[in-house]
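REQUEST FORM: STRUCTURE PREDICTION
Request ID: SP-0412
Submitted by: Lab K.M.
Chain count: 1
Length (residues): 138
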Amino acid sequence: MRTGRIAEDEDDELHEINVTPFIDVMLVLLIIFMVAAPLATVDVPVDLPASTAKPQPRPDKPLFVSVKTDGGVLVDETGADLDTLAAALDAATGGARDTRVFLRADKAVDYGRLMTVMNALRDAGYLKVALVALEDVR
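STATUS: Completed
RESULT:
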């Protein structure tokens, strides 16, 4: 025979919540975030300036200087070398040294070669150089 007291104890046990699995899951998530958070940051501290500049419109006829994989230089579609680069640029711009020059290079071009071409542009008096890249669409 059951008494009323035993029935009440069984009902009380049914209403308890076991929080141990919940705490275990929360601790595992905490450890995952503690490990993953330092990996999501950049290791090199750089204080970047803020910019409110709007993208510049593309000129009607941009002047491209291209560096090919083999190191050859083209002004628009005309071949040139470092010795004739200044003359080719002057011919293309009519001597306007304030013209923006769009420099593009194959990604296989050596960085030293790219810097040599940039130095030749500077030595020729063309200081407005913009680097051309593909837009990264991810």
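NOTES: Residues 49 and 55 are 17 Å apart (CA to CA).
Reviewed by: T.R.
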